[in-house]
Amino acid sequence: MEAPAMEPGEMEAMLRAAAEFAVRLMYLGWTKLLPHAWTKYFLRDMVHHFCRAMAFIQAGLLANSKNIRQLACKAMIHLLDKAGDSAVVVDTFVQHNLYPLLINCLTEGDEEISAISLDGIKRLAQIPKGIEIIFPPNGQGSVQLDKVAAQSSSMARIRILSLIAKLFAVSTYTATAIFDSNLLSLFEDEIKDRRDMLKTLSALEVLYELVEHPHSNIFLLKTNLLQLIVDVINDSSADSIVRSRATLISGRLLSSADAFMAIDQNCVTNLLLAIDKLLKMEESQNTDETESALEALGLIGTNSSNAARHVVEASFGRQGRGKQLAALHAFGSICGVDRREDQIKLDNQAEERLKRLVYTTARNSPKLTPSALLLSVLQQDPDIRIAGYRVISGLVAREWCLMEVCSKSDIINLVTDPKMETTKLGMEARHDCCVAISKALSSSHLLHEPSLSELIGKLNEAVKRGPYLSERRRVEPQPVVVPAERF
What we know:
There is one protein chain. By secondary structure, the protein is mostly helical. It has a domain at about 1-25 and about 40-135: Leucine-rich Repeat Variant, CATH 1.25.10. Helix content is about 65%, strand content about 0%. The longest helix has 20 residues, at about 10-25. The chain starts with 7 loop residues before the first helix and ends in a 22-residue tail after the last helix.
C-alpha cells in the first residue's frame, strides 16, 4: 500500500530530525551507518516531495564527507528512477544547480564517488529532456565539458572521456549531441600528445570502449581520429601495448561495410600499410601486437593489400598457437563467414587474389595443397579446430575450395564425426561447417557427381542429426523382472 503524502511541515521536521541524527552519527564516528539511516528517513517519502528532496541532495553533494556525497549521488539516482515527470527533473536540476555538482564529483572525487556520479549523469541522459541539461538546445549550458576538460588534470580529463563514452552509448541522439558539441576532439587532443604513454593508453582504452557501439563509426570517421590512430601504429617509439590497442580500434572502426563509404580511401590504404609494416617488423615479435594486427585485419575483412598475406600464411603456420588462432579467426572473417549470405564473396579481383594467396601458401608449405592445409588445421587442438571449421564454412562458398574440401575424404570424415567435439561451441561450429558444405554442394555441379554420392550422404545425415546428437543414441536403462527363487 502506498505511503500517504506528507505535509510540508512534516517533511521539514523529518529533514531536521534526520540531519541531527546524521550529525550525531558523524560525531560518534559511525559514518558507515549514514547510508542506512538516510535511506530510512529520506528515501522512503522523497518520491512524493521531489523538489525538497533535490534541495537535500544538493546539500549532500556539497558535503565534505565522502559517505554523504556517495549517498547523495545514490539518492539522486533512486529519485531519477522513480520520477515520471521529465519536466520536473529538468526544472529541479537547474534550480538546484545539481549537474555542475555532479561534474565536480566526477572530476574531483575519489574513484568511488567519480563512478557513482558518472552513473547518475548517464541516468539523467536516459530521461526524456534530461539530456537537455547536459546539452542545452542553445549550446550555452552552465557546464561545457570541453572547457572543464581544458582546465582539469590528466586524470579528470580521462574521466570526462569516460563520461562521453557512456553518454555516446545511450542513444543515437546523445551521440549526435556529442558530435555536434565537438567533444570527440577531446580524444584527438589526448591521443595526439603522446609524450605521456599512460595518458595516451588511457585515452585509447576509453576510445576502444566507445567504438564497440554499432553507430560509432558514423561519427568517428568524420573526425581525424583514424588518421591519428594510423600515426600511433606507425610510431616505432610508442609502447607495444599502445600500438596494439590502436590497431584493434582501427579494425573496429572499419568493421562495417558502410565505413568504407564514409572515409577517404587513402586513409584506409595508409592504415593497411601501417598494419603490414607492423607485421613485417622482424625485430618486434611481440605476441599481443601481432595478434592485435591479425584481428584488426579480420575485422576490416579485406584482402585488398599485402597485409592479408600475413593472415593466410599465419593461419597455416606453426610459429605460435596464439598467432595461428588469431589468424584463423581473421581469415574466417575475410572469407565472409560473418557477412550475410549474399555478401560472402568479394568482387572478382579480390576473389582471384584470395584464391591465389591460398594456393601460393599451400605450394610454399610441406602440405602442397589447400585441402591438406585445411586438414592439418582440423587435426590440431579443439580451439584451433573450431577456428578451422569457421574458415571452411566461409571458404566453401567458392567453387575451387569446395572442390578441394570434397577431394579430401578425411576432411568430410572429421566434420561429420558427431564424437569429434565435446563442447557446445565445438559441436555447433562443426555442425555449421557441415551445413555450409552441404549448402554449397546443393548449388554446385558437384552435387550430381557419382563419386561424391557417399560423401553427400554423410553430410546430409550430419546436417539432419543436428549439432548435439551423437551417432549412436544413448540406450535408456530397461527394467528387468527377475522371479523370486523358490526354496
